[in-house]
Amino acid sequence: MNSSVLSALPHDPAAESSMGALLLDQGKLTVDDAERVLRMQKDLGIRFGEAAVRLGLVSEDDIQQVLARQFSYPYLQKGQANLSPKLVAAYDPFSPQVEALRAIRSQLMLRWFARGRRALAIAGVTPEDGASLFAANLAVVFSQLGEQTLLVDANLRNPRQQEMFGVKPKQGLSDLLAGRADLDVITRVPAFVDLSLMPAGTLPPNPQELLAREGFRNLNTQLESRYDVVLYDLPPFASGADALAVAGRAGGVLLVACKHRTRIANVSRMAEQMAESGAEVVGSVVVEF
């Protein structure tokens, strides 16, 4: 049993007593198995989950999954759902990488969202900097906090989020900005009740012009009224002025650099131009994805 996980969650006897029912519902235990577990639990004075693991009826991962459900902290087991395995926040929420993501989330909550802001853009210099993957994982950890979170794929040149979350090709941001769709293009991510995705949609011939329209500002206002957190995955800064247009509308931007890859001078130049476009540079992170 992972003691660090159990100690991190509050001890709720009522919740613990329902663990057997959840394991039964999931098909992890039979009624006879549950009786064996209850007998050991009573004889040794241990928790239901610990007894089930000792008997070899379930794994530690099974117990962690149930605990997460009991305390409204959703995550997935490997192979579950059709999300990208690179979404560590979804599949490995107790790893050091995700602990770092939660620390960043806390800083953003205190330094940005606590100021009444709802939207934040995520930007990298090149496609290899990992900004899209970082944005996807950050969206997951915000939703795990219970924040109604929307991830908008604003990369209308080479979108990544639709594939990351296993969403079938459909209309999205570009179609909405062109007046060919409405907010129905937003898709809820089934595995995470508080997480939604707006895909990029049809790849347009004029992405910069679409994103620079006043309609984008109006859209952002609408989204901020509906969600606690709106994260924009921007096209790479090196691809053109698309990123500047979105960041200016969002109001704030978090810069992402890749360790041993991104040049400091390029990040500095990106920060300067973001500020000139009207976006506040909230901070920067270095990733090793």
UniProtKB/TrEMBL annotation:
InterPro entries recorded: Bact_polysacc_biosynth/exp (IPR050445), Cellulose_synthase_operon_BcsQ (IPR017746), P-loop_NTPase (IPR027417), T2SS_E_N_sf (IPR037257), Tyr_kinase_chain_length_EpsG (IPR017479), Wzc-like_C (IPR005702)
UniProt keyword list: ATP-binding, Kinase, Nucleotide-binding, Transferase
GO MF annotation terms: kinase activity
SUPFAM superfamilies named among the record's database cross-references: EspE N-terminal domain-like, P-loop containing nucleoside triphosphate hydrolases
Domain of life, source organism: Bacteria
The protein's name in its UniProt record: Chain length determinant protein tyrosine kinase EpsG
Biological source species: Massilia phyllostachyos
